[in-house]
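Changelog-adjacent note: as of this version, every example in the card shows the full chain rather than a window. The one below runs 107 residues end to end.
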Amino acid sequence: MLRNCINCIFENKISDARKTFPAVLRALKSKAARLALCTELAQHVVGNKAMLEHQQFDLVVRLMNCALQVVSLYSALIVFVFSDICVCVFYGKYAACEIWGLGQACC
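Full-length structure tokens:
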């Protein structure tokens, strides 16, 4: 379900993604689902070719935000670092990369 939702987001099938979105958000309460989210997003980041429209970006950010709402500090840190890099790549801005000291190597 998570993979299908993310694929719909990146294929710009926003209405299809929104149908499964509440269930995906509930699933992100589990550690396995959060790690799967990172893996799925990483597959779309490869080559810095992911260009998102506003609605797509909004859904990706909502997924990452939900994944950060976890009890474990260690898990939250891993998801945060990964999501920060993803935001940098997807949004195409250098601010997040500058925070981590990655400069233009990140973006």
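Structural remarks: The helical segments are 2-10, 14-27, 31-45, 54-68, 73-91, 95-99.
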